[in-house]
Amino acid sequence: MTAEQRTTATVLDGRATAAAVKDDLRGRVKALAERGIVPGLGTVLVGDDPGSHAYVAGKHRDCAELGIASIRRDLPVDATQAQLDAAVAELNADPACHGYIVQLPLPKGLDTQRVLEAIDPDKDADGLHPVSLGRLVLGYDGPLPCTPRGIVHLLRAYGVPLVGAHVVVVGRGTTVGRPLGLLLTRRSENATVTLCHTGTRDLAGHTRLADVIVAAAGVPGILTADMVKPGAAVVDVGITRVVGPDGKGIYTGDVDPAVAGVAGYLAPVPGGVGPMTRAMLLANVVERAERL
Ligand SMILES: Nc1nc2c(c(=O)[nH]1)N[C@@H](CN(C=O)c1ccc(C(=O)N[C@@H](CCC(=O)O)C(=O)O)cc1)CN2
After folding, report:
1. Ligand 1 pocket list (CB less than 6 A)
2. Is residue 95 part of a domain?
3. CATH number at residue 40
4. pLDDT, tens digit, 9 for 90 and up, residues 60-78
5. Which residues bind NADP(+) (predicted)?
6. Which of 114, 43, 47 is nearest to 78 (CA)?
7. Could you give the number of structural domains in the chain?
8. Is 173 known as a binding-site position?
């Protein structure tokens, strides 16, 4: 491609799209309040990781903005498994809590699988409980993992075709890559998915064939411009915290900035998938309150 043919990708604006989702939810929260129901979102946060603290604070700000009740359980970095189990049991029993999340990753020494399994599947706001993921595999209704749900919503909001499209997902993690593959191959989305990872042989050979690429490997810059078919839609899900030139922490994505010159659409970091993840968490909680 010559320099003249280069375009700048249309930005898939996660902030604007999340704001529209939140506007819709605000009305639904109001309708619930008229029936005497206040949806409640709980968070369990262990330790002092600055990123996790910022994400949890953002979730509680969102709740305040929409009229959702916030229930917050913060535990110290040296919390024991028994203390964490107790916080989870407490939220399972709390009728004011319609759904909650345990912020990941947990500090070393705590058992993530055990904690996720201890969450009442009916209160699984993250859609990461084995029962929720099993429902996704089987195509049953249930809470969907927030980031994959947000990605599909964002692509749809911009009219990016998914039916019959070839989507290459780079990253097989349980929060994003693996469930996204399941979501995109449901009959309603009907995409064809190739699930790659950092060990994939000839990764570029796969990505160059894709109509849509989702980069969720957690490796800054893993997707470069030469790996993208001109006009393809690219979704950056990487959130690696690095130290910026001014010594402050900044987030960097998996997509090299030069990709914007080749792709047709680009969901950037920040401002793409992150705000959608937050909005979908609120949607999962409001939907549970509505079902009740
Ligand atoms: N229990 C969970 N833990 C984690 C999840 C999750 O979905 N459930 N995902 C991530 C963290 N996360 C939500 O918890 C999250 C990450 C990033 C953002 C976000 O909005 N990012 C911004 C950039 C950061 C900023 O400017 O503040 C963006 O991309 O625009 C939201 C949520 C891991 N843990």
Report:
1. 54-55, 101-104, 126, 146-147, 175, 239, 251, 269-271, 274-275, 277-278
2. yes
3. 3.40.50.10860
4. 999 999 999 999 999 999 9
5. 171-173, 239
6. 47
7. 2
8. yes
